[in-house]
Specification:
383 residues, alpha/beta, Aminopeptidase, Alpha-Beta Plaits, 2 domains, 6-stranded mixed beta sheet, globular, binds zinc ion
Length: 383
């Protein structure tokens, strides 16, 4: 009787069990998906609103074509689970360059892609992609001035770009320090974009170029600016304004971004493995913690500084060149310049300075110690 009841109950329960099992599988899947990192990609359609960008044949505006291509790129990327798309604008509105960078920084994006169209008085055609650079020759500087001049349309540009002189390559130098660390990654994505344009679409490759563009200056992450073609070239203009052209271009850009994300994913796995290898055993960890607690704040003859960057570029140590950090020191070692900030004899204080530097965007900043003028590792110091 009892067993019959159980069997009967089991029959009744069977569908419920199935549902439960399926629910569990679904739950597990969502959990796994949630664990997968989402890469944040900022898509920045150049110009907008009162700033039309370049205007060709009196009717084709850069801002419109750029927006159409940008949105198409976004549509493709949004379909991918591991990607989150953030736009700087989705309508015909004016967004200043400072705000564009700020959107990307606040989102802690992994990549910033700005999309523009080119113009020239000659019959020039083809595509080029820019990364932030400082070896701008005079010709490139002209392009930079054109793309940068939009800041003059911004009401509070004097506040936001304090000390920025559009005519001076020197003033492009300062903020490039942060970007320099991202240069390798920026060059990778820039080449992927250009390769897709040339290999798949057979477009003229004008190359990957380095240039001091303000919109790229404002971001803390790898950033590129794509000039997707010349609106001023009749044949190319027809292609750029056509549905087919815009689809092909946006496909090329989206695929390059997806390939780039794959590279990032591979790197993350490799980095995680490295960390796993290096992870000390539990007992060792305890020891480390203990010594950290015991670190004295002041040790005689010892000073601390925060190393915010090292670079081949000699940059004036004005605070405006270092995101407002004051009292930056520059030390030359061989061909490299090191930039230090926040000299103090207090370990506690230097940690505060480190926090501040990181908040300003110098994400890889770290503390260095000097004993009687000689550099000494923190481990040695606190042994
Ligand atoms: Zn533009």
């Amino acid at each position: 009787m009892k067993s019959q009841l159980i069997i009967k109950n089991y029959r009744l329960l069977k569908p419920v069990l199935y549902v439960l099992i399926i629910c569990n599988i679904l739950l597990l899947n969502t959990k796994m998906n949630a664990q997968q990192k989402q890469y944040k990609i900022v898509l920045d359609a150049g110009h907008g609103g009162k700033d039309p960008g370049k205007v060709a044949f009196k009717k084709y505006k850069e801002k419109d074509v750029a927006l159409k291509i940008t949105k198409k790129v976004g549509e493709i990327l949004t379909k991918k689970k591991n990607i989150k798309v953030i736009y700087t604008r989705q309508k015909d509105v004016f967004v200043d360059l400072w705000e564009r960078g700020s959107i990307a920084n606040k989102a802690e994006a992994d990549l910033f892609v700005s999309i523009h169209l080119n113009a020239h008085t000659s019959a020039a055609h083809g595509t080029e992609t820019y990364v932030l650079g400082v070896n701008a020759n005079q010709k490139n500087l002209e392009v930079a001035k054109k793309e940068n001049s939009v800041i003059l349309l911004e009401e509070n540009y004097k506040e936001n770009y304090e000390g920025f002189d559009l005519d001076s390559p020197e003033s492009f130098l300062g903020l490039t320090l942060i970007q320099e660390e991202n240069l390798d990654k920026s060059l990778t994505i820039a080449s992927l974009v250009q390769n897709n344009f040339t290999d798949k679409l057979k477009r003229k490759n004008r190359g990957v170029k380095q240039l001091g563009l303000i919109v790229l200056h404002q971001t803390y992450m790898p950033s590129i600016l794509i000039e997707a073609g010349f609106l001023t070239n009749k044949k190319e203009c027809d292609y750029l304004i056509s549905e087919k052209g815009q689809n092909e271009i946006s496909n090329s850009i989206a695929n390059a971004i997806l390939d780039y994300v794959k590279i990032l994913e591979l790197n993350t796995v490799a980095e995680q493995e490295k960390v796993e290898e290096k992870k000390p055993k539990k007992e060792e960890k305890k020891e480390v913690k203990q010594t950290k607690k015991e670190r004295p704040d002041i040790i005689e003859g010892v000073i601390y500084k925060v190393q915010i960057a090292s670079s081949r570029n000699k940059i004036k140590t004005y605070s405006r060149n270092f995101k407002g950090l004051k009292g930056v020191q520059r030390v030359q070692i061989g061909k490299i310049f090191r930039y230090y900030y926040g000299e103090t004899n207090s370990y506690k204080q230097v940690n505060e300075k480190l926090k501040l530097a990181k908040n300003k965007g110098f994400k890889t900043a770290y503390i260095v110690a000097f004993k009687n003028g000689d550099k000494i590792s923190l481990d040695e110091l606190f042994e």
